[in-house]
Amino acid sequence: MKKKVLIAVLIIIVIALVVIGYFVFSDMMQEDKLKTELTEIYQLTNAETIDMDAINERLNRTITKGDYAVVEEAFKSYLKDNFDNSIEIANILNDEKITSLLTVENYKEDGKDFTESKSYITTTKATLENCKEKYTEFLTEEKAMSYINNKGLDSYYTDLYKEEFVGDMETAESDGIVENSIDEVISILNTSEEILNLLSENQDSWEIDGDTIVFSSESLSDEYNELVDAL
């Protein structure tokens, strides 16, 4: 009888160990899948030629389960919002409309009040300022952790998120290139706005002759050229 009880206990222990081993192995597999997935995303974003479709495909999918899926979705949301903001910045900085504001073609199309151009400048400056603020904010640990906090996860998973994926945000401080580029474009927009205001406030003192703007006032011409030279 005692032997039967002992055998039963041993069987229960073996089964328990197998179950525990299965869950440990499953967790290890889930964690490895997550790390591999995020490594591949980093590789795609750092490639010489960025494949937007491949990046978005990974950011919009979930390949893990359970608590690991919560971690995965949180970090991918953080990456996606960060990435979307960076794309918006790049699109604005490369917008050809910025360089066309002070062309004769725009003077003909939108002059002499320049309502559309001024509206574009106001909106674009506000968007750039907002994007710059977001860009800086995304490089803080507080922002990164806001995507995982209050998810009801065990500390192991929040620690995994912080230590493995977020890392030391102090080392991720911006080199200033993006912010400086934004500031330069905002400066160009400010000067362009000054020029358009000058033209709209002196509508009777200039006209377009062929491909050239001609002023009837030398002082106005000097002021215009001085602003253009400042660009």
What can you see in these coordinates?
With 231 residues, the chain is mainly alpha-helical. It contains 10 helices and 2 strands, in the order αααααααααββα. It has helices at residues 2-45, 52-59, 66-93, 96-100, 104-110, 115-138, 141-145, 155-166, 177-201, 218-229; strands at 206-209, 212-215. It has a two-stranded antiparallel sheet with strand order 1-2. A hairpin with a 2-residue loop joins β1 and β2. α1 (2-45) runs antiparallel to α2, α6 (115-138) runs antiparallel to α9 (177-201) and α9 (177-201) runs antiparallel to α10 (218-229). The longest helix is centred in the first third of the chain and has 44 residues, at 2-45.
Shape: elongated
Helix content: over 70%
Are there runs of 5+ residues with pLDDT below 50, and where?
2-26
Helical stretch tally: 10
Strand order of the largest sheet: 1-2
Class derived from helix and strand content: mainly alpha
**Beta fraction of the residues?**
under 5%
Overall mean confidence score, pLDDT? 86
Sheet bearing the most strands, described?
Answer: 2 strands, antiparallel
Order of helix and strand elements from N to C terminus: HHHHHHHHHEEH
Strand tally: 2
Radius of gyration: 29 Å
How widely separated are the two ends? 97 Å
